[in-house]
Amino acid sequence: MKTLIVYSSLTGNTRKVAQAISEAIGGSEMAPVGQSPDPAEYPLVLAGFWVDKGQADAKSKDFLSRLRDKMVGFFFTLGAYPDSPHADDVERVTAELLRAGGNDVLGSFRCQGKVDPELLERMKRMLPPDHPHAQMTEERKARLDEAARHPSDEDLMRARAFADDIYRKALSAPARPGKAARQ
Ligand SMILES: Cc1cc2nc3c(=O)[nH]c(=O)nc-3n(C[C@H](O)[C@H](O)[C@H](O)COP(=O)(O)O)c2cc1C
Questions:
Q1: What is the pTM (predicted TM-score) of this model?
Q2: From the CB of residue 115, how many other CB atoms can be counted at a distance below 10 Å?
Q3: Taking 70 as the threshold, does the pLDDT of residue 181 lie above it?
């Protein structure tokens, strides 16, 4: 099945995950968002993004909002813990956006990704001192230290398993009447 992997990545975390996913799906095509071929040609699209202020980064959000009637899997990296309500919200909002375009959401994958130290410095400089992102609490330090270890080899292994699972689901999904044929 023709499969397109489109990703957005500022500092390389999401690109690493996209790469692992593309290795798992032989014959897939991978491109950065904004430079991808027309998704209309692909029955299965896997879209990856980094989380920016609690949602998909702007370029990815634009891409996701244009997808129509596809089988879609999505993946994201974020600074927060993957089992946090914050990560759950990102997943829910993204799935809703995709479903609004008539897409079948076959699944999603998430993992932490190291946060750019420059961003952390900038926040410290620019935000008022009482802002939570200007302060380094024990909890925040532990979270950022953990994020700095991701995506790990284990994350990439799980990303490959996710890709296998999505691909299998796509192959066995019943054709939807009125939608483009799945090849
Ligand atoms: C401007 C900016 C905003 C961010 N906002 C969030 C956020 O709201 N929630 C979060 O968990 N992580 C946030 N992060 C962390 C990134 O999502 C995380 O480091 C991600 O792995 C970066 O992926 P990339 O290396 O593919 O660009 C933010 C990072 C940047 C640079």
A1: 0.94
A2: 19
A3: no
